Amino acid sequence: MSGGEKPIQEPQPGFCSATCVDRASLQHEIQKAEPKTSDFLITCNLPKRFEHPHWFNGYGCQTNKEHPLYRTSASEYGWYPPGYYSVPSVFFPAGQKFTNHLSAAGMYRNYSLNTGMDPVGYH
């Protein structure tokens, strides 16, 4: 071993990870910030849910306990949660002009003449 190298530590009992061989390195790993999408890609105007895709839950691989033989090919879509490379890197939200107008004016109601026949047996 040369002068500047750190000696390799043997794991203490209860620490089985290669990075956590003692209590100090375990505390250091726990306090590390979670990676964000912007750490891997150039992003623009992303909401927090896309910056932190590990927050997504409820996907098939996380909740579904059925036998894999009975899974359909359609269940492949949405089986895995999004990862850092599968979430959008740019976000352009839609404006709220239409929704704001609709909430102020109310839903459209059709007041035209009803010329349809009533179904038989309906009183």
TrEMBL record:
The keyword ATP-binding does not apply. It is found in: Cell projection, Cilium; Cytoplasm, Cytoskeleton. It comes from the Eukaryota. GO terms for biological process: axoneme assembly. Keywords: Cell projection, Cytoplasm, Cytoskeleton. Belongs to the PIERCE1 family. This is Jg15099 protein. It comes from Pararge aegeria aegeria.
